[in-house]
Design goal:
Layout: H1 15-27, E1 31-36, E2 43-47, H2 52-60, H3 63-67
């Protein structure tokens, strides 16, 4: 992420553009829930998508992805068996 992991996400280059992009994905229902994991730079998102390819394509448009400040490490289909999501 940009200047280094010791810099808060909100102080990284192009934070506002990245945040606006992610907020828009959530508002349209693509990202169902998501956020940073507690110990490190990784983030987990649960998305509603037809395929892993579609998911990768959507995240590729993130300004941080295009700037090389982040990268998608893994996209894995998931079956929800307990509880419900909005």
């Amino acid at each position: 992420m940009g200047r280094g992991s010791d810099v808060p996400r909100e102080a990284q280059d192009a934070w506002r553009a990245h945040a606006d992009f992610m907020n828009a994905l959530h508002a349209e229902g693509f990202i169902v829930i998501g956020g940073p994991l507690e110990d490190g730079p990784d983030v987990l998102h649960v998305v509603h998508a037809e395929s892993a390819r579609m998911t990768a394509a959507r995240f590729a448009d993130d300004p941080w992805e295009r700037m090389g400040l982040l990268r998608t490490i893994r996209i894995a289909p998931w079956t929800l068996r307990l509880g419900t999501l909005p």
